[in-house]
């Protein structure tokens, strides 16, 4: 029993480290030998937990979506309008931009997912759909008749703005991009709640 628990802990350690690497450098950044070294494990031990690198990428993506709650900063507030404002502020914050290793997997991986195998893309789509459903629910509570369409548009803008801000070498321009997106989204989505 203890050996099984230790194996589960080791697998978790590999997943945690791989999630950090994948958010920072994408799926191409996950080399088995380097990953295992970062996790303080031997290269050969990898195959006791995963059949292949491709399986690791799929499992890491599931792990990232399971551990990520992009709505967490807004959950302490009970008013839907304030929840939405807090969510927008948190997602499009400089703190989120500067911490890709702990951030939303959607923004971290959106540019490369189209080039990954279908099973991996399906996991990404499931993560997107879960987050989309939560945002749709919140927008419905605010009275938006087309909450589903608005949630799709908002997610595209937010994920795109965050990904672009991370890619931008000019910190001032990146901050301005996030600030303008926050303001535009709040103006567009919170008017009905006012």
From TrEMBL:
Matching InterPro entries: Homeodomain-like_sf (IPR009057), HTH_TetR (IPR001647), Tet_transcr_reg_TetR-rel_C_sf (IPR036271), YxaF_TetR_C (IPR054156)
MF-aspect GO terms: DNA binding
Name of this protein: TetR/AcrR family transcriptional regulator
DNA-binding region: 31-50
Record keywords: DNA-binding, Transcription, Transcription regulation
Taxonomic superkingdom: Bacteria
Record has Protein biosynthesis as a keyword: no
Domain HTH tetR-type stretches: 8-68
Presence of the UniProt keyword NADP in the record: no
Pfam families tied to this protein: TetR_C_13_2, TetR_N
